[in-house]
Amino acid sequence: MSVPHKSEVIGFRTNADLSDQEYRLVKRNGDSDMDLCGAGELPFGALTNDVADCSTTERSLGVQIGGPLPKIKCGGIITAGQPAMSDANGEAVLATDGNWTFGQAMETHADGDLGIFTWSPSYLETT
Predict the structure, then answer these.
(1) Cα separation of 26 and 62, whole Å?
(2) One digit per residue, pLDDT tens: the chain, 127 residues?
(3) Is the dihedral of CA 35, 43, 38, 48 positive or negative?
(4) What is the pLDDT at residue 6?
(5) Cβ–Cβ under 8 Å, residues 71 and 106
(6) Are 119 and 100 in contact (CB under 8 A)?
């Protein structure tokens, strides 16, 4: 019997205003902070619902890294089993060729849904 990989939620510092960005994909920005993940970029993890405006006072926010089934806000329709990537707003969308994916949709999700995904980052190259 296999044991599923346990998800981890870590506190990660930021000086950005992420107060309305819960359940969005984030990336490391190179100076020990995090920012929203851009379109097709490799995500570091997903924000939890513990978000805040950190633009005036840097603080830690909860970021889920790895593990099974992170919740991520959807920016478009994704059918169960399809690979997903970040759009320009850190939301999950159907992956396209030449971009980083973060996993697959566990169910079919509509734009605006809080979707459930596997966590298995990879680069999508079909040609």
Answers:
(1) 11
(2) 344 556 688 888 888 888 899 999 999 887 668 889 999 999 999 999 878 888 888 888 889 887 767 899 999 999 999 999 999 999 999 999 999 999 999 999 999 999 999 999 999 998 7
(3) negative
(4) 61
(5) no
(6) no
Which of 74, 71, 67 has its CA nearest to residue 95?
A: 74
φ/ψ (deg, to 5) at 92: -80, 130
Which secondary-structure segment (H or E) carries 124? strand 122-124
Encoded tokens for 58 = 């840097």
CA 58 to mean position of chain CA atoms: 21
Can you tell me the distance from the alpha carbon of 90 to that of 97, in angstroms, rounded to the nearest whole number? Answer: 18
Residues in the chain, total: 127
**Among the residues of 46-92, which ranges form H helices?**
none
* Residue 125 φ then ψ, to 5°: -135, 105
